[in-house]
Known about the structure:
Blueprint: E1 14-17, H1 31-35, H2 41-57, E2 62-64, H3 72-82, E3 91-96, E4 98-100, E5 112-114, H4 118-132, E6 136-144, H5 154-165, E7 169-174, H6 179-189, E8 194-198, H7 207-215, E9 219-223, H8 238-247, H9 251-260, E10 267-270, H10 275-282, H11 291-297, H12 304-313
Parallel strand pairs: 1-2, 1-10, 2-3, 3-6, 6-7, 7-8, 8-9, 9-10
Antiparallel strand pairs: 4-5
InterPro entries: AKR2_Oxidoreductase, NAD(P)_OxRdtase_dom_sf, NADP_OxRdtase_dom
Domain NADP-dependent oxidoreductase: 50-285
Organism: Nonomuraea cavernae
Amino acid sequence: MTANTRYPLPATPMGVGLAAxxxxxxxxxxxxxxxxxDRGIAALRVRSWAVLDAAWAAGVRYFDVARSYGRAxxxxxxxxxxxxxxxxxxxVGSKWxxxxxxxxxTDADVHEVKELSAGRFRRxxxxxxxxxGEHLSLYQIHSATLESGVLDDEDVLAELRELRAAGVAVGxxxxxxxxxxxxxxxxxxxxFDTVQATWNLxxxxxxxxxxxxxxxxxxxxxxxxxxxGRLTARAAPRVLAxxxxxxxxxxxxxxxxxxxxRPWAGVVLSGAASVEQLHSNLTATGVGWDAELDERLAVLAxxxxxxxxxxxxxxxx
Length: 317
């Protein structure tokens, strides 16, 4: 493995992802309450821009989108243009591999289709560049797994090397109960600048591999810190709700503070669907983590297979 310090992530500890705002349906719990009845393109653009404005004002400088997040790239690009934010003033990471096919319907049978091929990479990179232009700082494989074979696909790897040589950092996001194995395989390649993985109080299995990635010089981005709503006030396990109440915090802030306390965590993503949720998430940066919290909340950890089976059962809503 070769250390890579060419691409440090921005100093701000939290970023904002638009997975829940770029399309009308997602697997976050409580979207009817969060978004209301109007999920038209114009309404979600306004909501996205409000969250982006609040994030910018709070000092957030990392923004995460993907080709499959509906119009997320378009919304972000429009906001960057309208606010006259120069390339380099923020770090924009996008992802390729899934295509959004939901037709802007909440009741679509299929919302996204995965294909980690060199052909899709080339096509989606062109689409991302058309929208984001010079703002595109980081391009990531979307939900790489060992089973997908993408990390052994020489055509894909050659495309990633070419992109990296052109000055765009390359990364991968991971998914599923074998995230650690995927991360370790990526480290063997010595190609990637960042890794984005799921780690939260319920699903901790990728932690040691993320520590290895950090130690090898990769930037670590953490997604799904509130487990698609399972670690918010809406559905928080009893012990998390109780500890948050004792500390005068919201469950989501406590859950995100647990990630910020990990020495390998570079940027922790908020997937807020409203300005109020964003502000609640951002209070995590002021939470002092301690051994008592670690001990009391350790009981929340699930077996990886259990966690991912539960996540897989969440309905698009």
